[in-house]
Amino acid sequence: MKIAIGNDHVGYNLKLHLSEYLKQKGYDLENFGCDSEESCDYPVFAKKVAEAVASGRCDLGILICGTGVGISIAANKVKGIRAVVCSEPYSARLARQHNDANILAFGARVIGPAIAEMIVDEFLNAKFEGGRHQKRVDLISQMENE
Question: Structurally, how many domains does the chain consist of?
């Protein structure tokens, strides 16, 4: 599985931690984030990750900013993206299973490295269940096309 990862300056250190963690687990990562703590604009990196996921270049994405909120809002502007902010593992799993979320976002000012690992594991290991949930995802897609 190929994962697109992106961040702003606030998410830089957590990105470094998660990148190493995910590489050790055998994931192929593509870095679309900034590579320093120098102030930058999160929408730029959200767009890069979202386009990589929407195009199929990457299977899923991870975005990190201060809260996860701004970067997820920006990612959700790209057609075909269902980015979700999660600060605990249960929501991350259900976002994949029920909503077919394709980008996980969280805040480096909200969670620490250990919780981030748990959230990422739940998100990446969960699979979309389809069934009754497919109709709802289809309705979201229809809204995008209006």
Answer: 1
Find the CATH number of the domain harbouring 61.
3.40.1400.10
Per-residue pLDDT of the chain (146 residues; tens, 9 = 90+): 999 999 999 999 999 999 999 999 999 999 999 999 999 999 999 999 999 999 999 999 999 999 999 999 999 999 999 999 999 999 999 999 999 999 999 999 999 999 999 999 999 999 999 999 999 999 999 999 88
Catalytic residue flag (residue 65): yes
Domain range for residue 38?
A: 2-145
Catalytic residue from among 17, 40, 98, 133: 98
Catalytic pick among 58, 65, 86, 133: 65
Query: Is 58 part of the annotated catalytic residue set?
Result: no
Question: At residue 133, what are phi and psi to the nearest 5 degrees?
Answer: -75, -25
Task: Yes or no: say if 107 and 89 are a contact pair by the CB < 8 Å rule.
Answer: no
pTM greater than 0.90 (yes/no): yes
83-85, strands of its sheet edge to edge: 28-31, 2-7, 60-65, 103-107, 83-85
